[in-house]
Design a protein that fits this description.
Number of domains: 2
CATH architecture of the largest domain: 2-Layer Sandwich
Distance between the termini: 53 Å
Helix content: 40-55%
Radius of gyration: 20 Å
Low-confidence stretches: none
Number of strands: 7
CATH topology of the largest domain: Beta-Lactamase
Strand order of the largest sheet: 4-3-7-6-5
Order of helices and strands: HHHEEHHEEHHHEEEH
Largest sheet: 5 strands, antiparallel
Structural class: alpha+beta
Length: 250
């Protein structure tokens, strides 16, 4: 049953990812490594349920009205996004680079909102979720504020290969590195051709999300690092304050 659900969600996510461009059964089966008959059977089920629509026999399928309705009903983290979107927009304009807010769920990193104000720094968010938790600034900040048992479980459950921040290339380094991030209140480093930053966002003192920023490595200079740290830190504090509600009957 679980395997059938995994295949169903994999097909649905791939169709949603491709929308508004339709994708056909053959492309889906090849991309996902699924038997074509199985793929066609699941597509029929999703089509009958309204999750997808058929554009044409030749073109294939795209997201349907049920997906749109679910999205409108869910309003995932509505209060967070209501406050975060204008804050991310302001910060992106201030640093003139890429800024986002993300959360980790089930060992995957989800970018909830992203804004880029550097026309020379092209970023394509072409996945629903990313298996790069220990290879990103926002991911390691997420893990720093997660229970250590959970952080180690995520570390152990994936084949990270070279996609690790230097501080996490050995398992014995994980706990101390996460503790250091908590103590410093954030993380910044160089990742390939990018300078990356992330700080925590709280609601009533409880960790909620990571506020992140990335830029071309050419801009990752000591002076700019301090400026970005100040701006991203101030934005995170303002956002945390806006998300915190004083519960008092005094």
């Amino acid at each position: 049953m679980i395997k059938v659900l995994d295949k169903t969600f994999a097909i649905l996510e791939e169709i949603v990812r491709s929308t508004p461009h339709p994708i056909g059964p053959l492309a889906l089966s090849e991309k996902l490594g699924l038997n074509r008959a199985t793929c066609s059977r699941i597509i029929r089920m999703l089509l009958d349920s309204g999750y997808i629509i058929r554009v044409s026999r030749q073109a294939g399928y795209m997201a349907g009205p049920r997906i749109v309705t679910l999205n409108n009903m869910a309003e995932y983290q509505a209060e967070l996004l209501k406050k975060a979107i204008p804050a991310v927009d302001r910060l992106a304009k201030a640093v003139r680079d890429s800024v986002f807010i993300s959360q980790v769920c089930g060992g995957m990193r989800y970018v909830l909102y992203h804004r880029n104000c550097n026309p020379d720094h092209v970023i394509h968010l072409n996945q629903l979720a990313y298996n790069d938790v220990y290879g990103t600034a926002s991911g390691v900040v997420e893990m720093a504020y997660a229970p250590l048992e959970e952080a180690l479980k995520i570390y152990d459950s994936s084949e990270w290969g070279r996609n690790l921040r230097p501080e996490f290339r050995e398992r014995k380094m994980v706990a101390a590195s996460l503790a250091k991030i908590r103590k410093e209140g954030g993380y910044h480093s160089v990742s390939g051709l990018q300078g990356i930053f992330a700080v925590p966002v709280f609601a009533n003192g409880v960790y909620l999300a990571a506020l992140g920023c990335s830029m071309p490595v050419s801009r990752y200079t000591p002076e700019h690092i301090e400026e970005v740290k100040r701006l991203i830190g101030n934005t995170a504090e303002e956002l945390s304050s806006a998300l915190s509600v004083a519960n008092s009957i005094g």
